[in-house]
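Purpose: get a first structural picture of the assembly so the mutagenesis plan has something to point at.
Setup: two entries, given in the order below. No constraints added.
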Amino acid sequence: MAAVPSEDPEGSGGDSARLVERIRSGDPNADRELVERFGRGLMILLRRSSRNRGDADDLYQETFRVALEKIRRGGLREPEKLAGFLAGIARNLVIEHYRRSSARPVESDDRAARDLADTATGPLEKLLRLERVEIVRRVLSELDSERDRQILFRFYLAEEDKRLICADLGLSSLHFNRVLFRARQRFRELFTELAGKDNGAG
Amino acid sequence: MPHINDEMDHPYIDDEQLVERYRTGRLGPEESARFEEHFLGCSLCQEQLEAAEDFRRSLADLASDAVAIEAPRPGGLSRRLALLPPRPLLALAAALLVAVSAAALLLLGQLGRARSDLESARRAAADSRRDAYETREALERVQRMREKPDARVAALPAAAVGAAVFTLNLTRGAGDGTPENSIVLPGSPEWLVLLVDRPGPKAIRTFRARISTADGRPVGDVLTPSRASGDQLAVALPSSLLAPGDFALTIEGLATGGRAEPLATYSFRAARKP
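Result (structure tokens, whole complex):
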């Protein structure tokens, strides 16, 4: 597996503490920086916890609004734990949102239903879906062995446990990780390549 | 430089498959919360999460396409195998068998509900199969247009399906009043898709779109763009909203607190198909 950096400068506690200080002192750029730094991760969290994208988008705005309000009031006692603070607010807002609307947040069993709700319906979405399917077909055809294809199907579709698959197929944990990592990377590469063509033609 | 969560380092995340287990809801509440605190500030894990979800969904789409096409036709497997390249298809069929068998064991307790859902899905899939083939034709048309960008407008009248796609360039300055872009309105109502480069800072995730006439009168309701391939937004609207004339498409970003800020304007001229 490719080496993974063990640090992420964007997420450092020192930077977070400085950012919190700037928000408190009224720096007009600090609010925007908060959104830029944590927006993408927060959206991933909310999309996973929400029943649909509309709810996630609403809760995204609300999370930042509540967070900024609390930070300005001095409600964040450990500024270096800014990420945890934001995640906590987001989780609470999700729970509160679905309590008010008498609906549960998304549990793992509900993912199929959410997938169905998010199923591509518009013409453009259908085109994009077909493109993605073609890409994944190519990724599968490029795999070294039938066993590697089995790993992907059993893990992603049947959602079998990694240990069970490894034991069943006589694989090491490292090999398993490598197959998943390479497949995802290749998928990403091909998708980016296609997006590049799109931009080139537009 | 200190890590956001010293215990949650990447070798641990990889070895424990936290990305996948989080995505599938197989982490306990505490570990899930710790991972969220980590990936909120970790662009690498964010990329892994997005890639994993895109990959899983595409894999599921591939499998469902194969099942949907296969299901209504007895003896259709041999026909399907004959139509498509053999090696990937055989691999796919084998892998699907593995997946279906394993899933059946895992979901035995929910079999009744699953069977009912599956029947509904199969019926829906059969209904939409014709659409899928038509959409494939549209995809091929778009790919041809990619290869020959100048043929884009010329190719549009041949559109036999769903939507006509137009890429709009940003309007800079007042100019001489002539719109920078043009679109062709179809003879009968169909969907139009306006593609624009995603404007504004990357952090803005929520957009809305407004279309107005040249003298500023709004056309239709506020529209919600969706993300298209690459760094683009797609605004879909029924062609019946537009009459021949000049228009402006304004993309707004929703800032913190729900405040909308105009990010970019694209002027375009709509003309009827000759």
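Chain A touches chain B through 98 residues (CB under 8 Å).
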